[in-house]
């Protein structure tokens, strides 16, 4: 039986960390005044205690249950990340909250950006029905490359990173999971680890500081970690300062907790335009979208589980029937809850039979350095990693894990697969534009629902609320 780390040891570590932090603050302040701040080096000032190549995961007995409460019972916060509320935006509020727009570190980054070069695009408004207000926007010419209006991914403007939205390699399923981490995802991460499957994981900053152990598991397993904003709002409706804060504090959260600073991000609901892209580019971030959408988050709420299963089956059929014989795809899926993860584990074996490659976006794009830290290196596509049993990301993947894995029985949780019936016309383009309109989402309801205290439970209802409002607007 597992014995929890003694509280005394944790306290001692915290005191040690506190003293260390206090000392280093003094040091960095004095050097900051003598050295000019270089924007491209912003990530170097995150004083992380985590070595991304040597993450130790607490010995948590593996639960075979997919039940959230059962899995979270074993959650053990890591000793090398000490969350202090006063140093972060409020969880699930805009990242400028809690005075975070006025910290010296944030102002330093803000002031190092040449805002005169920012695209002159207005902050979008949310209409009374909660949807993005597109009135007056020229959707045909789409001057702002606003994905929510047009699914545009090529900014056509100097100095803005172009989006990645598909895997160019043939017969390839770009595997992406949004909205983690979460204390309740141990069985899912064990499954991916046992099957040696690597995915791109788009982590929400609030979740990373709330459940750091989950994010450390992601890094230790060699997944491609990316930024999914601090509070999961429609980014085009936020001011420049707010957009920068949403991205900056999530970069910081991921670095402090996992030891790596991402070079990729994904906007919630895909809501991005050239103004938001340009700000992301200032932090060295490239946008990753998708070209297939399972709508798995809606399973059991605004869509039936069998509808979502049918979508999975269609995308799987497309892997085997030649649709992707010349180039692959990136599929949007989520690790939100029991339903989304059960669907993932049910279909992954079928996906791997139908596609030659099932892998993270960094690997499918030959991006060997998906982080600023250049000691964490991914194998390029075409290396031994190509096989669907996948990635030799030379980061932590090979290092031993202290977890004693008992495979969860995914299939028992979800029963009969839906037979592949005649294909609906809802293939790539249809699902893509449906997503675009669904991304005309409503955070208004979410924002109203926001309470300053709400942490874990509130955050969950907020994610689901936002998605549900979005779905009703299609
Ligand atoms: C890895 O971390 C462990 C535990 O913190 C430590 O004892 C060990 O020395 C580290 N190994 C390396 C190679 O840094
Ligand atoms: C920071 O945000 C607060 C609250 O929104 C605002 O009153 C203040 O003016 C902002 N400060 C800066 C430097 O933007
Ligand atoms: C965390 O996991 C629980 C249990 O799976 C889920 O219900 C909840 O929605 C998740 N929270 C977030 C913020 O994703
Ligand atoms: C992919 O891996 C699975 C599981 O190891 C295997 O059953 C399947 O045949 C493989 N598919 C290809 C195309 O290599
Ligand atoms: C990745 O590298 C392989 C091997 O060099 C090459 O065949 C392939 O075209 C590259 N793919 C991309 C997306 O750059
Ligand atoms: C492949 O399967 C999809 C989904 O079932 C279907 O829409 C498409 O028409 C099929 N394509 C071919 C070439 O059979
Ligand atoms: Zn999301």
TrEMBL record:
Question: Where does the UniProt annotation place the signal sequence?
Answer: 1-21
Reactions this protein catalyses: [(1->4)-N-acetyl-beta-D-glucosaminyl](n) + n H2O = chitosan + n acetate
Domain NodB homology as annotated: residue spans: 171-364
Enzyme class, UniProt record, top EC level: hydrolase
The record, for InterPro entries, names: Glyco_hydro/deAcase_b/a-brl, NODB_dom, Polysacc_deacetylase_ArnD
Q: Which Gene3D superfamilies match?
A: Glycoside hydrolase/deacetylase
The primary location reported for this protein is: membrane
Enumerate the Pfam families for this protein.
Polysacc_deac_1 (PF01522)
Q: Where in the cell is it found?
A: Cell membrane; Secreted, Cell wall
Q: What is its EC number?
A: 3.5.1.41
GO terms in the biological process aspect are:
cell wall organization; chitin catabolic process; fungal-type cell wall biogenesis; polysaccharide catabolic process
Q: Name one GO molecular function term.
A: metal ion binding
The alphabetized UniProt keywords are:
Carbohydrate metabolism, Cell membrane, Cell wall, Cell wall biogenesis/degradation, Chitin degradation, Cobalt, Glycoprotein, GPI-anchor, Hydrolase, Lipoprotein, Membrane, Metal-binding, Polysaccharide degradation, Secreted, Signal
Superkingdom of origin organism = Eukaryota
GO cellular component, alphabetical, reads: plasma membrane; side of membrane
Q: How does it sit in the membrane?
A: Lipid-anchor; GPI-anchor
Which cofactors are reported in the record for this sequence?
Answer: Co(2+)
Database matches in PANTHER family: CHITIN DEACETYLASE, GLYCOSYL TRANSFERASE-RELATED
To which protein family does this belong?
Answer: Belongs to the polysaccharide deacetylase family.
- The name this protein goes by in its record: chitin deacetylase
Q: Which organism is it from?
A: Mucor saturninus
């Amino acid at each position: 039986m597992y014995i929890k780390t003694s509280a005394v040891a944790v306290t001692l570590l915290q005191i040690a960390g506190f003293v260390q932090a206090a000392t280093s603050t003094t040091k960095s302040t004095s050097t900051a005044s003598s050295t000019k701040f270089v924007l491209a080096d912003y990530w170097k000032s995150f004083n992380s205690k985590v070595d991304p190549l040597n993450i130790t995961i607490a010995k948590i007995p593996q639960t075979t249950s997919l039940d959230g409460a059962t899995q979270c019972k074993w959650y053990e916060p890591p000793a090398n990340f000490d969350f202090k509320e006063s140093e972060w935006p409020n969880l699930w509020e805009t990242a400028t909250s809690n005075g975070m727009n006025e910290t010296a570190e944030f102002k330093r980054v803000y002031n190092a950006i040449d805002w005169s070069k920012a695209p002159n695009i207005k902050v979008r408004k949310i209409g009374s029905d909660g949807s993005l207000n597109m009135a007056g926007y020229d959707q045909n010419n789409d001057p702002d490359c606003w994905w929510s209006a047009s699914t545009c991914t090529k900014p056509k403007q100097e100095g803005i990173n172009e989006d990645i939205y598909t895997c160019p390699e043939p017969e390839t399923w770009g595997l992406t999971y949004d909205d983690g981490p979460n204390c309740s995802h141990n069985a899912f991460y064990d499954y991916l680890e046992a099957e040696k499957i690597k995915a791109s994981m788009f982590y929400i900053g609030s979740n990373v500081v709330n459940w750091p152990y989950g994010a450390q598991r992601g890094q230790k397993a060699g997944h491609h970690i990316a930024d999914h904003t601090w509070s999961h709002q429609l980014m085009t409706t936020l001011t420049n300062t707010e957009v920068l804060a949403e991205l900056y504090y999530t970069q910081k959260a991921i670095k402090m907790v996992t030891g790596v600073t991402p070079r990729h991000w994904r906007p919630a609901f895909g809501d991005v335009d050239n103004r938001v892209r340009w700000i992301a580019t200032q932090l060295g971030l490239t946008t990753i979208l998708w070209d297939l959408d399972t709508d798995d988050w809606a399973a059991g709420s605004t869509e039936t589980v069998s509808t979502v299963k049918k979508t999975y089956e269609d995308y799987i059929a497309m892997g085997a029937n030649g649709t992707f014989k010349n180039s692959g795809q990136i599929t949007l899926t989520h690790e939100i809850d029991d339903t989304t993860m059960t669907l993932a584990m049910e279909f992954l074996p079928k996906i791997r039979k139908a596609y030659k490659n099932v892998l993270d976006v960094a690997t499918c794009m030959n991006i060997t350095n998906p982080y600023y830290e250049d000691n964490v290196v991914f194998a390029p596509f075409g290396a031994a990693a190509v096989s669907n049993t996948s990635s030799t990301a030379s980061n932590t993947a090979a290092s031993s894990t202290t977890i004693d894995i008992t495979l969860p029985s995914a299939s028992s949780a979800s029963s009969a697969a839906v037979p592949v019936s005649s294909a609906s016309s809802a293939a790539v383009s249809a699902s893509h534009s449906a997503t675009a309109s669904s991304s005309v989402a409503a955070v208004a309801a979410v924002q109203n629902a926001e309470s300053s205290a709400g942490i874990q439970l509130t955050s969950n209802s907020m994610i689901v609320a936002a998605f549900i409002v979005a779905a009703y607007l299609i």
